[in-house]
From TrEMBL, chain A:
It comes from the Bacteria. This is ABC-type oligopeptide transport system, ATPase component. It holds the Pfam family oligo_HPY. InterPro entries: AAA+_ATPase, ABC_transp_ATP-bind, ABC_transporter-like_ATP-bd, ABC_transporter-like_CS, Oligopep_ABC_C, P-loop_NTPase. The keyword Nucleus does not apply. Gene3D superfamilies: P-loop containing nucleotide triphosphate hydrolases. One of its GO terms (biological process) is peptide transport. Residues 8-254 form the ABC transporter domain. Keywords: ATP-binding, Nucleotide-binding, Transport. Belongs to the ABC transporter superfamily. One of its GO terms (molecular function) is ATP hydrolysis activity. PANTHER family: D,D-DIPEPTIDE TRANSPORT ATP-BINDING PROTEIN DDPF-RELATED (PTHR43776:SF7), TRANSPORT ATP-BINDING PROTEIN (PTHR43776).
UniProtKB/TrEMBL annotation, chain B:
GO terms for molecular function: ATP binding; ATP hydrolysis activity. Pfam families: ABC_tran, oligo_HPY. SUPFAM superfamilies: P-loop containing nucleoside triphosphate hydrolases (SSF52540). Keywords: ATP-binding, Cell membrane, Membrane, Nucleotide-binding, Transport. This is Oligopeptide transport ATP-binding protein OppD. It comes from Kandleria vitulina DSM 20405. Belongs to the ABC transporter superfamily. GO terms for cellular component: plasma membrane. InterPro entries: AAA+_ATPase (IPR003593), ABC_Ni/Peptide_Import (IPR050388), ABC_transporter-like_ATP-bd (IPR003439), ABC_transporter-like_CS (IPR017871), Oligopep_ABC_C (IPR013563), P-loop_NTPase (IPR027417). Residues 10-269 form the ABC transporter domain.
Length: 314, 363
């Protein structure tokens, strides 16, 4: 994979969950985007917007209802053989939100990190396996003495480093980070984000970064997609989304970010957006391109209105 | 500001926890003041003791925790006679705290609304319960008041909602219910322990604005515990920065944000990315917080402090007053008149200048 090649393409992905005979939850309802090798794509939205579901459908923890997911040229959305799934797991990895809940408390760190290697028999001797784990531990800023400890002996930030080491051990091409830093303290968030950036430089992996903290997403992402109620309402480069937001939902998200500046913050009122009363229709809308990278979900009239609003504010 | 009425006064509070054969000194000499109608924020990393301090105020320390010394004086006016009463919560019995203080005078909003609500009770019952317990309000009256409270916290169709169970509500709605419960006994002090950490940004802003509105209407004092400086900037009048069980810097919000003096506060402010950060790497405070089971000699922050002086390794710094201000205090030897002059990092200075400029445009 070269930098700039499309590594993942999601086309009109739908993920519905049948709750009962009468009710189906449309968690993700027709979203499309692509991720290029070595870049970071940020997915933002409020809880219930379908951002985690998207991540989990891509790594095939769910069976997608409709649509196509093309990963490294292969369609991975249909039925997959066990063998195909297994190879997929070596090329895609996930980092979870809560580092305490996602590490097996009864296993030593060395076995947690090496689990991928064990399953795929990716070594010829135990020494080689252990050496790989030690190297990985050092890469994520822990030392080899930590290998024989249990997860509860680590702090939150260190545990998240273990989670990152486990995700990276199979040298995946795509890493899905589902709210990987939300559960951490501000100062530790910065450490983990720095680590993720450093690892990206060294391994060239692409990230799908799912979060609701917009300032962090802006910092880490090359491109951003904004999800709301299972629809991708706006997508573009980080600059486009933050400097020229068109969709009212994106605007409301941006206006809700607290600024660490009391003079502004004290007078600021957040801008509220409610789908039910906005008069917008996500179902009828389709993608309107503003630039090559920037597009917004709207019907023709809505699009004209958005553009008119955008001009006014300049 | 001329007649500020002091409601809460904490002096030299020390709290330790027994774990196994070790003694964890979680709080080491905290002083804190809260005035009527004002908002203070306590900021710090996890484990810095911010939650423990407020738990001590509520008298809900864990069983292995004990208050070694210090006082928590709470002042209020008697409901009937209007007489001013001051009492030390540390010296009160558990029963006295339960009937007089907890819930009635001081109420608390916790981080996670799902775990602080009872899943087997309707929300209406949960809001009515404290009123009936503390004031002996009749059921009908309590019901009416509960409906009014739900309306106040912005829940539509409150009468129908009274019959709902917590799982039927969204996260933001649940937190509103928790706030309604906290307000049900007309407390003087509201403690919010990370009230919005479990919620997402759009809802976070609304909940904070709600708490501000209620505060203005009812004239209550609020203590925020948080590690989110954006939240602090929005709501607080006063800020207390805590590190390893001690308050290391305190002052008015503008003093802390535009003129921080303690290296730890510099670190906290620098670590937070703002929307214009495009450096290759985010700033992080080196090292990790100290182990409080061991006796700390000197300044607890010294091992992580790039600007540490020799004296930091031997003596714990007292609170130094910042020149030209009677609210801003810093616990760092750098503030001593004989200390070498140390400037804050260049990048932070640039950022603060930019913040000031933006603020000036807005004002």
């Amino acid at each position: 994979m070269h930098k700039g090649d499309t590594i993942l393409e999601v086309k009109d992905l739908k993920q519905h969950f049948r709750v009962s005979r009468k009710q189906t939850v449309k968690a993700v309802d027709g979203i499309s985007f692509e991720i290029k090798a070595g870049e970071t794509y940020g997915l933002v939205g409020e809880s219930g917007s379908g951002k985690s579901t998207t991540g989990r459908s891509i790594i095939r923890l769910y069976q997608p209802t409709q649509g196509k997911i093309i990963f490294e040229g292969e369609d991975i959305s249909g039925k997959m053989s066990n063998k195909a799934l297994k190879t997929l797991r070596t090329k895609m990895a996930m980092i979870f939100q809560d580092p305490m809940a996602c590490l097996n408390p009864r296993k030593k760190v060395i076995d947690i990190i090496a689990q991928g290697l064990d399953i795929h028999h990716a070594y010829s001797s135990i020494e080689e396996r252990n050496e790989k784990v030690y190297k990985m531990l050092e890469m994520v800023g822990l030392s080899r003495e930590h290998a024989n400890r249990y997860p509860h002996q680590f702090s939150g930030g260190q545990r998240q480093r273990i989670g990152i080491a486990r995700a990276l051990i199979m040298e995946p091409d795509l890493i899905i980070a589902d709210e990987a830093i939300s559960a951490l303290d501000v100062s530790i968030q910065a450490q983990v984000v720095n680590l993720m950036k450093k690892m990206q430089k060294e391994t060239g992996a692409a990230y799908l970064f799912i979060a609701h903290d917009l300032s962090m997403v802006k910092y880490i992402s090359d491109r951003i997609g904004v999800l709301h109620l299972g629809h991708m309402v706006e997508t573009g480069t980080a600059e486009e989304i933050f400097n020229n937001p068109l969709h009212p939902y994106t605007k409301s998200l941006l206006s809700a970010i607290p600024h660490p500046n009391p003079k502004i913050e004290k007078t600021r009122k957040s801008f509220t957006y409610d789908y039910a009363t906005s008069g917008l229709d996500y179902e009828a809308g389709y993608e309107h391109k503003i630039t090559d990278t920037h597009s917004v979900l709207a019907t023709d009239e809505e699009f004209e209105q958005f553009m008119a609003n955008a001009k006014k504010s300049f | 500001m001329s007649q500020r009425e002091k409601i809460l006064e904490i002096r030299d509070l020390n709290i330790s926890f027994k774990t196994g054969n070790k003694n964890v000194k979680a709080i080491r000499g905290v002083n804190l003041d809260l005035y009527k109608g004002e908002t203070i924020a306590i900021v710090g990393e996890s484990g810095s003791g911010k939650s423990v301090t407020t738990k001590a105020i509520m008298g809900i320390l864990a069983k292995n925790g004990s208050i070694d010394s210090g006082s928590i004086n709470y002042t209020w006016h008697d409901e009937k006679t209007g007489e001013k009463i001051t009492k030390d919560i540390v010296k009160m019995s558990e029963k006295e705290i339960q009937t007089e203080i907890r819930g009635r005078k001081i109420a608390m909003v916790f981080q996670d609304p799902m775990t602080s609500l009872n899943p087997t009770m309707t929300i209406g019952k949960q809001i009515m319960e404290p009123m009936m317990y503390h004031y002996g309000t009749s059921k009908e009256e309590a019901f009416k008041k509960a409906v009014k409270l739900l309306e106040e916290v912005g829940i539509t169709d409150p009468e129908a909602r009274m019959k709902n169970y917590p799982h039927q509500l969204s996260g933001g709605m649940r937190q509103r219910v928790v706030i309604a419960i906290a307000l049900s006994c007309d407390p003087y002090v509201l403690i919010c322990d990370e009230p919005t950490t479990a919620l997402d940004v759009t809802i976070q802003a609304k909940i904070l604005e709600l708490i501000q509105d209620i505060q203005k209407k009812k004239g209550i004092s609020v203590i925020y515990i948080t590690h989110d400086l954006g939240v602090v900037a929005k709501v607080a009048d006063f800020v207390n920065v805590m590190y390893a069980g001690k308050i290391v810097e305190k002052g008015l919000i503008d003093e802390i944000f535009y003129d921080p003096r303690h290296p730890y506060t510099w670190g906290l402010l620098s670590a937070m990315p703002d929307l214009d950060t495009d450096d290759d790497e985010l700033y992080t405070i080196p090292g990790s917080p100290p182990n409080l089971t061991q006796e700390i000699v000197g300044d607890a922050f010294a091992p992580r402090n790039l600007y540490a002086l020799n004296i930091d390794k031997r003596l714990d710094p007292p609170m130094f007053k910042v020149e030209g201000s009677n609210t801003h205090e810093v616990a760092s030897w750098l503030m001593h008149p004989k200390a070498p002059h140390v400037e804050m990092p260049e990048s932070l200075k640039k950022r603060i200048n930019k913040m000031k400029k933006e603020g000036a445009i807005n004002a």
